[in-house]
Amino acid sequence: MAKLIYMMNISFDGYTQDEHGDFTFTAPIDPAVHTFIFQHASSFRTLLYGRKVYETMLYWETAHTLPDQTPLEIGFARKWQAAEKIVYSKTLTEPHSANTTITQSFEPEAIRNLKANRNHDIAIAGPELAAQAIHAGLVDELQMRICPAIIGGGTRFFPTGVRLDLQLIEDRQFRNGEIFLRYAVNNQSK
């Protein structure tokens, strides 16, 4: 059975983007962070996205054609293109990338079936989409890259009204002050 892993970049004060939708504070500058994030994120073969995250990630559909791409970036682009992508959106009517399905509503039972029928872990990204999965008790692991920035408000990584018992699985610190954390979810509110 696959695990559902909520993975996002966040500010030190727990936001995925600021009040204006800006998330440039998450751009990895340190080459060690860049390499780690690309290698880690490219391991997922099934990706569940909200519309905004999907539209941001669409860059990777054609990134391999752009000049000055590193082998790491080209490799990530190829793996992203090959991954199964399920996008939850009420406004998108058709996909803009290969291996992509658009669905209008989040159905917990569909995610349970997806987890039961995959032999690899599934990433979920987008705080609103992940909140639905957390509230439904479907998220098995949280992964966050904490960036050394306080942005004072915006879209929160964690939904309100949820209590989770977490167990630290991995922590990694980088020279630029970034921290990568992985937590297993021991109990899930339903």
UniProtKB/TrEMBL annotation:
InterPro entries: DHFR-like_dom_sf, RibDG_C, Riboflavin_Biosynth_HTPR. Signal peptide: none annotated. Residues 3-176 form the Bacterial bifunctional deaminase-reductase C-terminal domain. It comes from the Bacteria. This is Dihydrofolate reductase family protein.
